[in-house]
Design goal:
Largest sheet: 8 strands, mixed
Strand content: 15-25%
Number of helices: 16
Helix content: 25-40%
Strand order of the largest sheet: 3-2-9-5-6-7-8-4
Shape: elongated
Structural class: alpha/beta
Distance between the termini: 45 Å
Length: 467
């Protein structure tokens, strides 16, 4: 067994022993709780992670960046009326950056919110209510984001007063995610409990003329400073080259950010801890990132690519772990199939935890995005959908929903892959050119996804990613 293989085996064995992985996650979820960027809990999480990594003798620092604005929901309430008489108070939550204040309008039902649905009903000056399919897995999440983007654009073009999205989760479960305009949102948008939205639909279809009053209260301010937590283990003969693995430390505040994404924050911290404890000296520098501002629009990882622009050529691989705690079954290679042979070599150290299947699809929706747009080889771990879709961004995303056994196995898998890239003699991972990226975006039909996050114009204008 070669020295590098022995090193990988030693690390994998360490990851599978009793480590602080679970206690770190429990502290992050149960003691600190939901960690919306700009909140006291988010600041506490950053300081806690920094202190933990410092105590583990890691070279760690806080890297500050600017968030464009603050929006922290205090409360959102609603009441349904007919002819001035209150019928009931549905459970609702505001989508990110919905304008504060009272919003009162008639309600129009636009079925699934397709173009023909908007054509068939007058929504001008009204709340437009749209129904959704139940969301149970990752495919359901992508479908939900797609529907929400299309509805938002049609509602804006049709002069709607606001949008009511039926919750895609049963049992009055509520959740939050950002809008396609992000911090520029001016259209009130709420998620209404599935059962309450269905009640409204039944009333409308029976001939009732409904009116909805929504009161949104939120803490708001202009720009503020947030922080990424960045630690590293320096390399030896290839120290100038960087292998980056990251997970976002922020979450929405309805739940406690367990599967999204506290479990993978704890995973990244534990890999760094065990590498340091074992005295592992990788050939390339390994950098561990706990990103902030991901939920509002990948602000922390984007800021990193700007602040480290002069060393992006040295980044040989950037990995994001952000799809919960289900067992890792391979990696999204984001349009770059050069990873396949390398990944299979590194996963040999954890072959008993496989099998693994790698997917060439590009992921738009987590912190790999700006590395992709910079042409840096990047990976996103692909997980089994354990508890992820149903609890995504929801009040139910709590510690008890985490698959702790799979999380432990995942830590060994990510550790093996990370160390493999760090020690590989000849990495076939040069940065892509703008032309190559344009081809990936075209071949994988990423224009729609980039528009969904309001990034397409910045990409085409050369304001985001490679010029």
């Amino acid at each position: 067994m070669g020295a590098q293989s022995a090193q990988a085996s030693q690390l994998v064995a360490a990851m599978l022993t009793d480590t602080p992985l679970e206690s770190d996650l429990q502290h992050l979820c149960d003691v600190i709780g939901g960690r919306e960027t700009g909140s006291d809990a988010n600041d506490a999480a950053v300081q806690w992670a920094f202190a933990q990594m410092k105590a583990d003798s890691l070279d760690v620092q806080l890297e500050e960046f600017t968030m464009p604005s603050l929006w922290l929901e205090s409360a959102t309430t609603a009441s349904v009326h007919e002819r001035g008489e209150k019928i009931f108070s549905p459970l609702v939550v505001s989508k990110y950056h919905s304008p504060v204040g009272e919003h009162r309008s008639a309600v129009a039902f636009a079925r699934k919110g397709a173009q023909e649905d908007f054509t068939d009903v007058d929504v001008k000056g009204k709340w437009v209510l749209v129904e959704t399919e139940k969301c149970m897995d990752i495919a359901g999440l992508f479908a939900e984001y797609t529907q929400a983007y299309r509805v938002e654009e049609l509602a804006r073009a049709s002069g709607a007063a606001g949008v009511i999205y039926m919750s895609s989760r049963p049992k009055k479960l509520l959740y939050r995610f950002t809008t396609s305009r992000g911090v520029q949102t001016q259209l009130p948008q709420i998620v209404m409990a599935r059962e309450d939205a269905k009640r409204c639909i039944r009333l409308i279809e029976s001939g009732a003329s409904l009116e909805l009053t929504v009161k949104i209260s939120a803490e708001e301010s202009d720009q503020f400073t947030s922080h990424n937590v960045i630690a590293e283990i320096p390399g030896t003969d290839l120290a100038d080259e960087i292998i980056l693995i990251g997970a976002h430390i922020d979450s929405w505040a309805l739940g406690t950010g367990a599967n999204d994404n506290g479990c993978n924050v704890a995973l990244v911290m534990d890999i760094a801890r065990q590498m340091k404890r074992l005295g592992i000296k990788p050939r390339r520098t390994i950098r561990f990132a706990l990103w902030n501002g991901e939920e509002q629009g990948f602000f922390g990882s984007h800021a990193y690519t700007l602040d480290h622009a002069d060393e992006l050529d040295q980044h040989q691989m950037a990995m994001s772990i952000d799809i919960g705690s289900g067992k890792i079954i391979g990696f999204f290679t984001n349009g770059d199939e050069r990873h396949y042979d390398q990944l299979d070599r590194y996963l040999a150290a954890v072959s008993a935890l496989g099998p693994y299947l790698h997917i060439p699809n590009a992921i738009v929706g987590t912190d790999n995005l700006d590395f992709l747009l910079q042409g840096i080889p990047n990976l996103v771990a692909n997980h089994k959908p354990y508890n992820y879709g149903l609890n995504y961004h929801a009040s139910s995303d709590t510690y008890d929903k985490v698959d702790l056994q799979s999380l432990k196995l995942n830590s060994a898998i990510i550790a093996a892959v990370t160390l493999g890239y760090a020690n590989e003699p000849n990495l076939a991972t040069d940065r892509m050119t703008r032309a190559q990226l344009d081809k990936v975006i075209k071949d994988q039909s990423l224009e729609f996804s980039l528009r969904m996050f309001d990034l397409w114009n910045d990409w085409t204008a050369g304001k985001r990613g490679l010029k």
